[in-house]
User: What shape does this take?
Amino acid sequence: MQTIQEYIAQHKERFLNELIDLLKIPSVSADPAYNQDVLNTADMVKLQLEKAGCDKIEICETPGYPIVYGEKIIDPKLPTVLVYGHYDVQPADPIDLWDSPPFEPIIKKTETHPEGAIFARGACDDKGQMYMHVKALEYMTNTGNLPCNVKFMIEGEEEVGSESLAWFVPRNKEKLANDVILISDTGMIANSIPSITTGLRGLSYVEVEVTGPNRDLHSGLYGGAVANPINVLTKMIASLHDENNHITIPGFYDKVENLSREERDEMAKAPFSLENYKKSLEIDAIYGEKGYTTNERNSIRPTLDVNGIWGGYTGEGAKTVIASKAYAKISMRLVPNQEWREITELFKKHFESIAPKGVQVKVTPHHGGQGYVTPIDNIGYQAASKAYQETFGVTPIPQRSGGSIPIVALFEEELKSKTILMGFGLDSDAIHSPNEHFGVWNYLKGIETIPFFYKYFTELSK
Amino acid sequence: MQTIQEYIAQHKERFLNELIDLLKIPSVSADPAYNQDVLNTADMVKLQLEKAGCDKIEICETPGYPIVYGEKIIDPKLPTVLVYGHYDVQPADPIDLWDSPPFEPIIKKTETHPEGAIFARGACDDKGQMYMHVKALEYMTNTGNLPCNVKFMIEGEEEVGSESLAWFVPRNKEKLANDVILISDTGMIANSIPSITTGLRGLSYVEVEVTGPNRDLHSGLYGGAVANPINVLTKMIASLHDENNHITIPGFYDKVENLSREERDEMAKAPFSLENYKKSLEIDAIYGEKGYTTNERNSIRPTLDVNGIWGGYTGEGAKTVIASKAYAKISMRLVPNQEWREITELFKKHFESIAPKGVQVKVTPHHGGQGYVTPIDNIGYQAASKAYQETFGVTPIPQRSGGSIPIVALFEEELKSKTILMGFGLDSDAIHSPNEHFGVWNYLKGIETIPFFYKYFTELSK
Assistant: This one.
């Protein structure tokens, strides 16, 4: 029987070309201008699931972008793995910072990826990592190595909050019934140090609008005499952190899970070089909440970041104007036990309360989601760990991630099953940034590792 | 001999149509895209000066946009009035807030302007007010009423700092030699309460750039662990004012002219309704430096306002990104005795000094200028005051303006002559804002009043 390694050696070129075709479609879910491209991507995913061996594939309509569903049920008595991924991508701007066009994938060698990396928006997040599962399925079905049932659910709104998925899942519990959920939408520490993400941060994303005078004003005639919405917005945002970079929103930390000294010591064992970290970002110093390490700040601690700000004259040259309105997009990363809707409410209440006289403030929640933790004694985690040992030759490290996959908490709530996060990307892959890429080695290693998860999960389920 | 009133009655329609043609050209000096339009506007001004009776007209080349020069010397022994104005305009954005296209002038009646107002970018600032002088000259030359010599100097970079004018004036002192400089680029209190601007604020305009990590980052993986340039920028800007809205830049107030109680009491006599002020801006409260009234805050006190801010994702929907860079345009209005270059230096030094570790800060000065004061015993002021009495029937009030016309200080320094600011616009004319307009009554009243200035200035010069 052909091994996965043999199969990959034989089909490697095609695996890469199929992914490149998928990456050429700009499926930016945040921007309505790409509406048709997002829909076309869903069709392409459907087609590929069919080719890979799914025997029941549908494009499931939702209030937003459709969800591609596919399944292969070989025996109802066997366990079922539900694979989740997303076919939408982040916006590519700032375009001018890309070395090659974001939707014209090219393979280039890098220091981290001597065997080459595919550069394109979505290469790693999440088209590349999602497609590993499609190719792993192709191997298992074509070679009679599929040991259990499999279901695929690939959505198109992950980058904008998965609202339609949250609508879809509760309405399709039977269709989605499973024993474990498998996702590759996270990273690992290094190609020589595989890790499995056991924790995710929650998210609350809001947009704020500060309105002062009813029109833009001449800064000479009115400057100093009326509240300037931009100056006011900067004061309000600045006040959201104190001098120790603690967030000042009343009640914000009330439900934060505080890790024990032991747990923090365990985390501290993960290899990390502050020098390399600073070097890779070209910063002279790190920054953050007092009393925590860098790895703690971006994983077990909640944060508040401005993701965008705008107001007034931003064009060429100078315009002496006081803008009528100023805006900001602000997101908070949350940790287990913080309830995102409650945090959104706390933010809204606080932000409105600190608005000075002379301006009106509007807070509009965008989306959010809960944090999540997988216990490492879960058989899903055990199966993943064994799979990495097979293909990497080392035991993967359990790791808390700073990122958010809000629907993982939703899955647990609605489908009562745990999610295993087998990520094959690297932090340096620049997801959400210009020049996003995914190592060719990582892509193929993922395809190689996934079938072992199915094997061990089926065995451990007996 | 035909009076100015008779002449206006006869040519009113043409006066309006000629101005409308001038307003149709988008001479936005701040935006290179309008380069040709700015040049075309200069040509149109030259043509109209010729028609109005100037006997020596030139387009004077400069390092930037040209200066239109015209003169009519009737007798070297008579005094000479130098008229200054500008043919460039502010950018029109935000375009979507205009009720009619900014460069398609239309006349509409308003509450303040029952006889109609011309709505267009530049209607009041400064095409309309500049053109009043061209039409006043036409009357004086066509009817043999020109009592002295006149020179026109109309520039095309006032809205971007008059750099080329600052280059031109010292190189053309003889050509520009005059006894008084006359400018209409300010406003008056109300149509029933004419006022003459006796003070102007200086200006320092800078752009700041804060750079954090070398690329945009995923706010989940890096949030809370690296300095976010937008958060840092808001903290830095917020710190520029203390809780009393005093500016915190060390040395900023050192040279500020402090008015006596008497002078402030005199100012306080100018009619002002706080209720109407708030109503017209639709704000529930005023704002500003503690210990000063609204009229003091926007005239005799220096200020610091953010005119524009931008960074990160500002498009549709949500993007969870930490931007690599954040920017702001910041201007400071200065009062007499503050030296703008020194203030710019103080800002730069201070702003760079408050940057936290983890970011790089760049401060780029845009332009600036000195404040200015005209004593009311100056014969130019006296002539202007008598002119208003002739046509308004009341004595105008001397008034400090919050605006800046940097070149007025330059004129005094280079040409050793005082400037008289005869403004006919109103604060409610929305200059620098959407729906800028200029009252038809004000336009014609300006044309009517200006010849009397020439008459009285010539008499008082004997």
